[in-house]
């Protein structure tokens, strides 16, 4: 990574930094350097493993960013997404929606345990790993708050009630983010994550069949139909890239795609259907630095959702199971 840009309040727009200040006043205060004495090598260790893993397989960056998002939206950023099914809890969050990146988290956790056993929570590992995945895939970085603790509870039902659906229109999207303390700035900025990674056809064939959605570019739809035939029960569900342009580079390309009507989901296209979200899509498309500032601020804000601190929760030994 030749020239990594570190976004700070000094160099960046007051609006984003002010937003950051508001968040910390309204929710549990997480510091920026929780492990500075207990595990000074924590962040460096996590970064090294994430960089190594994503060098070998760039799709891991998308997976780690999405894991942090899902963790935070379903029962707070408490690593509940990482708990495996057990006899005590047969239907944890991860049984609800298939996600990638769990093996990568195991590798990161193993490296962190090797330098500081029992010290760094899995919830913080997800937040740092998402940040480092942004560093790798977008070339900019930001400071991440830490001190989250890992929860014991993980329920598939919480995924169904808290995760926004790709079939949502703008009102449901806004409502879903508002319930988590996030606003339309956050909704639009974070949607930029759909410049990387992949999606299964089943998430957007509603826009291809029986007729092509008129809000989708016809040539793009024709292209997608080549990979995604009309859905038939039991048939395979292939994947396509979220972005037709530079699909492993996290950038404001998503917003350019949205304006060109070349995004996959009903929920992506919905960002153009209200005046205020459309205005932000246009700003983010036109100004890459502005989007980066907003994205970083919104990731920090998302990482504060319903966190466990102090003596609540625990620091898990294995990210896949509560300590016994
Ligand atoms: C606004 C509401 C959102 C909806 C409805 C949504 C929905 C989806 C869906 C359906 C997929 C494809 C999954 C698959 O078929 O395997 C996806 C992929 C992805 N989403 Fe979102 N998402 C939203 C917001 C976010 C946010 C806030 C982030 C992160 C900041 C994010 C990051 C990603 C990434 C990185 C992928 C690609 C994952 C991979 O390739 O492993 N999404 N999203
Ligand atoms: C990352 O990869 C390099 C080169 O393969 C290796 O020397 C280093 O030990 C790895 N670091 C981690 C933390 O895995
Ligand atoms: C998806 O992106 C990868 C990486 O850039 C590329 O190799 C692949 O051909 C793309 N797939 C499609 C269907 O365009
Ligand atoms: C979480 O699990 C740990 C270890 O099993 C236990 O000590 C603790 O009381 C549990 N906390 C809650 C709130 O269930």
Architecture overview:
Heme b binds at residue 194. The record marks 66 as: Transition state stabilizer. It is found in: Secreted. It is a single chain. The N and C termini lie far apart (41 Å). With 324 residues, the protein is mainly α. Helix 1 packs parallel to helix 13 (288-302), helix 2 runs antiparallel to helix 4 (102-115) and helix 2 crosses helix 5 (122-138). 45% of the residues lie in helices and 3% in strands. The protein has two domains: 5-163, Peroxidase, domain 1 (Orthogonal Bundle), CATH 1.10.520; 184-291, Peroxidase, domain 2 (Orthogonal Bundle), CATH 1.10.420. The model is unreliable at 10-27 (pLDDT under 50). A two-stranded parallel ribbon has the order 1-2. A two-stranded antiparallel ribbon has the order 3-4. It has helices at residues 14-26, 42-56, 59-73, 102-115, 122-138, 156-162, 170-178, 184-191, 218-227, 253-259, 266-270, 275-286, 288-302, and strands at residues 5-6, 140-141, 198-200, 239-241. It is globular, with a radius of gyration of 19 Å. The protein binds protoporphyrin IX containing FE and 2-acetamido-2-deoxy-beta-D-glucopyranose (3 copies). Residues 152, 314, 322-323 line the site of one 2-acetamido-2-deoxy-beta-D-glucopyranose.
């Amino acid at each position: 990574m030749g020239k990594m840009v570190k976004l700070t309040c000094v160099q960046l727009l007051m609006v984003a930094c002010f937003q950051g200040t508001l968040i910390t006043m309204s929710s549990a205060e997480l510091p920026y350097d929780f492990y500075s004495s207990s595990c000074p090598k924590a962040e460096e260790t996590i970064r090294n493993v994430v960089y190594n893993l994503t060098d070998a397989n760039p799709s891991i960056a998308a997976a780690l960013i999405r894991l942090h998002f899902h963790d935070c939206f379903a029962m707070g950023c408490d690593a509940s997404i990482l708990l495996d099914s057990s006899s005590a809890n047969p239907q944890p969050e991860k049984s609800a929606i298939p996600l990638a990146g769990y093996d990568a988290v195991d590798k990161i956790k193993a490296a962190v345990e090797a330098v500081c056993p029992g010290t760094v929570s899995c919830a913080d590992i997800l937040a740092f790993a998402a940040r480092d995945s942004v560093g790798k895939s977008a070339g900019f970085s930001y400071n991440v708050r830490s001190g989250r603790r890992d929860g014991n509870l993980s329920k598939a039902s919480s995924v169904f009630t808290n995760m926004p659906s790709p079939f949502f229109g703008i009102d449901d999207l806004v409502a879903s983010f508002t319930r988590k303390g996030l606003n339309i700035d956050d909704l639009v900025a974070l949607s930029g994550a759909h410049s990387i990674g992949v999606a299964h056809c089943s998430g957007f064939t509603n826009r291809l069949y029986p007729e092509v959605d008129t809000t989708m570019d016809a040539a793009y739809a024709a292209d997608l139909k080549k990979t995604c035939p009309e859905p038939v029960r039991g048939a395979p569900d292939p994947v396509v890239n979220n972005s037709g342009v530079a699909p492993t580079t996290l950038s404001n390309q998503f917003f350019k795609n949205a304006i060109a009507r070349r995004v996959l989901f009903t929920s992506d296209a919905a960002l153009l259907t209200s005046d205020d979200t459309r205005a932000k899509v246009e700003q983010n498309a036109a100004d890459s630095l502005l989007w980066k500032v907003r994205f970083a601020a919104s990731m920090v804000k998302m990482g504060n959702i319903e966190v466990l601190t102090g003596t609540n929760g625990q620091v898990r030994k294995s990210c896949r199971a509560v300590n016994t």
